[in-house]
Automatic annotation (TrEMBL):
It comes from Secundilactobacillus collinoides (Lactobacillus collinoides). GO terms for molecular function: acetate kinase activity; ATP binding; magnesium ion binding. This is Acetate kinase. The record marks H181, R241 as: Transition state stabilizer. Keywords: ATP-binding, Cytoplasm, Kinase, Magnesium, Metal-binding, Nucleotide-binding, Transferase. Its EC number is 2.7.2.1. PANTHER family: ACETATE KINASE, ACETATE KINASE-RELATED. The gene is pduW. It is an enzyme of class 2 (transferase). GO terms for cellular component: cytoplasm.
Amino acid sequence: MSQKILAINAGSSSLKFKLYDMPEEVVLVSGLVDRISHEDAIFTYKIGGHDDKHETVQPVKDHTAAVQLVIDALLGSGLIQDKSEIVGVGHRVSHGGRYYTQSVEIDDDVAEKIDELSVLSPLHNPVNLLGIQAFEKLLPDAKEVAVFDTSFHSTMPPKAFMYALPYKYYTEDGVRRYGFHGQSHQYIYSEATRLLGEQTTSKLISCHLGNGASICAIKDGKSVNTSMGFTPLAGLVMGTRSGDVDPEILPFLEEKHHLNSEDIRSMLNHDSGLKGISDVSNDVRDVLDAESQGNERAKLALEIYVHQIQEYIGSYTTDLEGLTTLVFTAGVGEHSAPIRQRVCERLGYLGVKIDDAKNQANEIEIQADDSRVKVMVIPTDEELIIARDTQKIVG
């Protein structure tokens, strides 16, 4: 029996959604409410496989108003006659901490824990919770399901997730590497395996390169290591996030510049990364443009960015005891041929070699004929993983 499932990805000022007919995995409607809380919020959506987009600009006060806009559009599309036809709503939730190793139906206790974990994912958990609360009000008969970024990485061994801190901080406070972008890495593995087969994807590295970025080592379908850590701040240089830094830098800056922990947290999350180094932008496209015009800071930012991606790929090849498939995904990974080319040009020792024409054309497979490693560009689909998990729980 087919069921209508909504997959939701709530941001601080946005609400991305897809309505699926499950288990056929047919996208009925997809769209985005952007600039929530502004007078000129933008609501765009398209029906099924049609290219025509419906777009309106109007005031959207908050996430509840955004959800109402989405429900009204779904009813107006004629694809549902009554909102009770939506039997499940799956929500992407950034941090599940040590509480959740798989997706769960949301109740008061789950909501409290998502709120509690906001301190570990301050950019995401609070707004994920706003989306949940808004849908609970307007779709009271649908089951609400939390699909955690961290769940896919619960298969990591202790040698990969433990920090060398006093052990009590792990046992008492849950301080460990959790990893994020789990739905994306999970989808990348499943799609690469569908296209190439399990043997070719047995040792796969997934590079989710967007404004937020992480790399995951996947062995036989299981995450064995990933670059983000206790929070989404760790790992790679990102758009505005620092990634890995020497921890002693933080008290040094606090003392020297009379900063408090909130100042430091804001600097690391909002003013660092590509933006902090280049002083141009958090957007790779802008930084590449600035580099082409002779901006030395932009050039340096890109060199650091690419170098760190290469470091993680090399390290994770050790974890996997080899490399069969390298996949690029997310905004930068899917669309920036220059970044893919720069990352791969120093990976020849691993057997990675790309075809420049295929890379420029954004083909699915971009490896050269004599490459020992498959190199792929796969658009991620986190919403499909959310819909699949939600349907399992709806039953």
